[in-house]
Design a protein that fits this description.
Layout (H helix, E strand, L loop, with lengths): L1 H14 L4 E7 L2 H17 L3 E6 L4 H5 L5 E6 L6 H4 L6 E4 L12 E4 L1 H4 L6 H12 L7 H10 L8 H10 L2 E6 L8 H6 L13 H10 L17 H12 L12 E9 L2 E4 H13 L3 H8 L3 H27 L3 E3 L2 E5 L9 H9 L9 E8 L2 E8 L7 H12 L3 E3 L3 E7 L3 H19 L1
Parallel strand pairs: 1-2, 1-3, 3-4, 4-5, 10-11
Antiparallel strand pairs: 6-7, 7-8, 9-10, 11-12, 12-14, 13-14
Helix pairs in contact: 1-6, 2-6, 2-7, 2-13, 6-7, 7-8, 7-12, 12-13, 12-14, 13-14, 16-17
Length: 439
């Protein structure tokens, strides 16, 4: 993949002398950190460019892109090749998503799935570009770690990420995957949404009872942060939380590595920062998220304010899901939130639910929310093993028209609101037929 990146650098360098560069990135955490890394690298390289952060791509958007510019896509566009081949300009894609279309002649793609390299996130690919360009860009490694965590690729680290972790001087500690691990434990538990802990999340009383059960007490008037707990305290806390759930595999997804990176001269939990960046974009403030990643202090203040508001929306959404009627099948759950949950956070809601031990390994979580005249659909797999949710959605969407993006364990699509009933009925058929085949 590094040889491919070197070729991309040479071609971009040549093309930038006759055309301006237009960088387009996805609006989630991985996309924002990709944009921050790439734009900083281009700026240091002395290249002039424009930057745009988008929710996604469609045929009309691509058709309206200027052909007087070199188009550079970060963390997206692997599923839009049929539209991009119509553009009479050079296209570069730095991505890590699945490719199901033939790569056109005008598209230069850097993707670990193509180059048979270690799986890395979009931010990881952008960081490798930046570091190949100049070793001075190693100070951007922390953003690559945040992007990695944002795209849930931290569970099985590759050699490539081992190197990025070293470049970032990241502190890694094994423990309960509760963020922020750098804040007082009582606050972290009360606002915990991933994992969502019944009777504890959103309840100060529930938090106090849990900490009492774990025999964890205040010290100097406040609770320790998660990363400061002793091994004995960590085990006691994990045991107390596990007792809140029923099921065979109670430890699934709860234990792993905590990643602490330095931002604004302070050690921060990469998961918390990932959530904050994601929150800003989901609330419509991608520019603030980008400014935060680039070290702007004013953006940091704004981002923290937006994050608090976002968590309030998220708590409402989770409460709605808990209390609302759902379609529960054998090994799948469909949540049709309609106008009750913002389309920009429905994917986050699906992810949180998929990480809850309430649902067994392999359960497919599919959540829907209205987006004007369309419906945003987000699909997630509970645990690490199960059906390819991208293929599940594709089998339904291909009949209705539309495109599916994402990964085998996390995918999404947009459908017309008029297809709501048909989509759900066809989805249930595909899920039920797939289950019969598995059995």
């Amino acid at each position: 993949m590094l040889e491919k990146i070197k070729s991309a650098i040479e071609r971009i360098d040549q093309l930038s002398k006759v055309k301006s560069l237009r960088v387009i990135s996805h609006f989630d955490t991985d996309g924002i950190t990709s944009a921050a890394i790439f734009s900083r690298a281009l700026h240091r390289w002395g290249k002039k460019f424009s930057l745009e952060v988008v929710k996604g791509l469609d045929e009309n958007y691509i058709a309206n892109l200027s052909e007087k510019e070199v188009l550079i896509f970060l963390d997206l566009a692997s599923g839009s090749l049929d539209h991009l081949k119509k553009k009479n300009t050079e296209v570069f894609i730095f991505d890590h998503h699945e490719i199901i279309q033939e790569i056109p002649e005008n598209v230069f793609m850097v993707n670990p799935l193509l180059q048979k390299g270690d799986m890395v996130s979009g931010a990881g690919v952008s960081y490798l570009f930046a570091k190949t360009l100049s070793v001075a860009n190693r100070d951007l490694a922390g953003l690559a770690i945040i992007g990695m965590v944002g795209d849930l690729l931290e569970k099985e680290l590759s050699k490539t990420y081992d190197e990025i972790l070293k470049d970032a001087e990241c502190v890694v500690k094994k423990g309960l995957l509760l963020y922020p691990s750098t804040r007082p434990l009582d606050r972290a538990l009360e606002y915990s949404s991933n994992p969502y802990i019944p009777g504890v999340t959103g309840s100060h009383k529930g938090v106090m009872e849990l900490l009492k059960d774990a025999n964890i007490e205040r010290k100097d008037g406040k609770f320790k942060a998660l990363y400061e707990l002793t091994e004995e305290e960590m085990r006691a806390l994990i045991t107390a939380i596990m007792l809140k759930f029923a099921g065979e595999d109670k430890t699934r997804g709860f234990i792993g590595n905590l990643y602490l990176v330095k931002l604004f001269n302070k050690l921060e939990d990469a998961r918390e920062i990932s959530a904050l960046i994601n929150a800003c974009s989901r609330m419509g403030y991608s520019d603030i998220a980008l400014g935060f990643c680039l070290g702007n202090k004013k953006s940091k203040e704004e981002a923290e304010r937006i994050y608090i508001e976002y968590k309030q929306h998220l708590m409402y959404a989770l409460k709605y899901v808990e209390e609302s009627e759902k379609i529960l099948g054998n090994n799948y759950l469909i949540i049709n939130a309609r106008n009750n949950i913002k389309d920009t956070i429905i994917g986050t809601v699906a992810s949180i639910i998929s990480h809850s031990p309430v649902y067994s390994e392999g359960t497919i979580i599919i959540a829907l929310a209205y987006n004007e005249d369309k419906i945003k659909v987000s699909a997630r797999i509970s645990g690490r093993e199960g059906r390819n949710v991208r293929e599940v959605l594709n089998k339904v969407v291909i009949q209705l028209g539309g495109e599916v993006g994402g990964h085998p364990n996390a995918a999404g699509c947009l459908i017309s609101k008029e297809h709501e009933t048909v989509f759900i009925e066809e989805l249930k058929k595909v899920l039920d037929v797939g289950l019969m085949k598995v059995q």
